[in-house]
Amino acid sequence: MGYKTAFAEVMREYERDRDRARADLENKRQEVYKNFPRILTIENQLKSISIKLARSILINGGDIKALDRLRRESEALMAEKKQILADSRFGVDFLDAAYRCPVCRDTGFVGSTRCMCLKQRLIQKYYDCSNLSGVLEQENFSTFDLRCYSVNTTDSEEMTPRARMKGILKVCREFVDRFGNGDNLLFYGKPGLGKTFMCNCLAKEILDKGATVLYSTAPRLFKAVEAFRFNRQEAGDPETIEALTEVDLLIIDDLGAEISTLVTASELFNILNARLLENRSIIISTNLSPADFQNQYSERIVSRFSGHFKMLKFIGDDIRIKKKYGEKRAAGLGR
Ligand SMILES: [Zn+2]
Fold this sequence. Notes:
Elements: H1 3-35, H2 37-60, H3 64-87, E1 109-110, E2 113-114, H4 116-129, H5 135-138, H6 161-177, E3 185-188, H7 195-208, E4 213-217, H8 218-230, H9 238-246, E5 249-255, H10 262-277, E6 281-286, H11 290-296, H12 299-306, E7 310-313, H13 319-332
Parallel strand pairs: 3-6, 3-7, 4-5, 5-6
Antiparallel strand pairs: 1-2
Zinc ion is lined by residues 101, 103-104, 115, 117.
């Protein structure tokens, strides 16, 4: 499901909620009228008073004495109704509409701004749209573990992997805090060092802010772009293509693993370019080194993009292996 469909669906849910609340209220009214016909009389009187009030304001610009009398009358009637309900088995608030959200009365909006309940519901839906629902419970900042990264330096690096990851973590946290400024990140380094994991951490944080996220591996992304290019009618999901430019955060995992034609590559980079111009964030992860990157994509593309990305190099041993085989040993060593 795409984000637009998701939004429309949520709006329909709100409509259903409102209808339900209204129908529910109507049933309660009928029940109350049956038991207390006086309440029906009171409500009819209240209606006619409000008509009189409106008329009086229109005709005499509001004769103050008359207005006062009408207001007092209506206040007395409302108090009487309240008292009847309070003394009954129904209770004083029985005829208050039972909205799921009393703040926005199940409209999703307070004035023109989105109600908290709508934001919350969209977050749930957006999880489903991100291609990540499920994964994010396991892979997020709270489960991220710096201890998977070694405290020993290798010959080629000055920093220890753990110190490097600490730095990367900080940059990533800042990315989340500053989100909306069009920052872009590029994770590179050997496979198995936690790049995808970090993508997921960021996706969760951004989704939890109520923003839209689309995650895709590069092979899947190129396939979608290709299908769309060559067979527009049957391309599985044009909304996905639209989402590529429109989501607040696009995550492309494993760039370089795709098999692509020059045309598809340039099409995708046009999309990325559009995002840069609109200040919409992109996170890319790749196993390619910067030198390989130059080889795989045209120089024009590389030079266009490199200036816009914060390049973060992941170093260390394969943490997938470490997680699988080394956990007990690492714990035993107190590290
Ligand atoms: Zn609400």
